[in-house]
Amino acid sequence: MATTADMRTGLIIKVDGSLYSVIEFGQNKTARAAAKVWAKLKGVDNNRTIELTWNSGETIFPVRVEKKPYQFLYKDDSGYTFMDTGTYEQITVVEAMVDAPQFIKDGQEVTVLINGETDQPMGVELPDKIVMRVTYSEPGMRGDTATRTLKPATVETGANVNVPLFVNEGDLIRINSKTGEYIERVKE
Predict the structure, then answer these.
(1) CA-to-CA distance for 161 and 145, rounded, in angstroms?
(2) How are beta strands 121-125 and 36-43 bridged, if at all?
């Protein structure tokens, strides 16, 4: 058993039979009343986002989650197929369980979240920063660097990313997989 004092970002808890991940949390204190703990929760096994409030010290029910490295193999009608890099066991998950499916490429290493109680996959996380090759981009105007102007570019997976004007076709760029934003150009 855990209490609200154990609350942290990324913790997966069971609420009314469903699993939720803590996105953010905080504590409200008033002069006369007891402190309250609030949390914004995102559904792991559903697409809901909810906010809950507990009295400080109340019991919460965390779920044991194992993170295992897997490799992306392919996508078909049944979903995304991944292989455990240690046992070569394969699992298939639906697209909704993949963190950022538009940035996933063949052979990429990912982290699969597995429910410790049921041994079922709960989600797939890509690394925070990934390197992609730009496959299409309009040429930037020479000398137009006074402002941080961005232009659309297509990366090797087909996803569109806004990049600075100096990025050209064939360049490697680092992208934040959580937000889809350009971080920097990578030297080969």
Answers:
(1) 19
(2) unpaired
Q: Which domain holds residue 120?
A: 65-125
Name 53's Cβ contacts closer than 8 Å, sequence gap at least 6: 36, 37, 38, 39
Task: Report the CATH number at residue 43.
Answer: 2.30.30.30
Task: Express each pLDDT in 89-100 by its tens digit.
Answer: 999 998 888 888
SS3 157: coil
pLDDT digits (tens, 9 = 90+) for 129-175: 999 999 998 887 666 566 678 889 999 999 999 998 888 899 999 99
25 touches 42 (CB < 8 A): no
73 and 112 fall within a common domain? yes
Residues 108/126, Cβ–Cβ less than 8 Å: yes
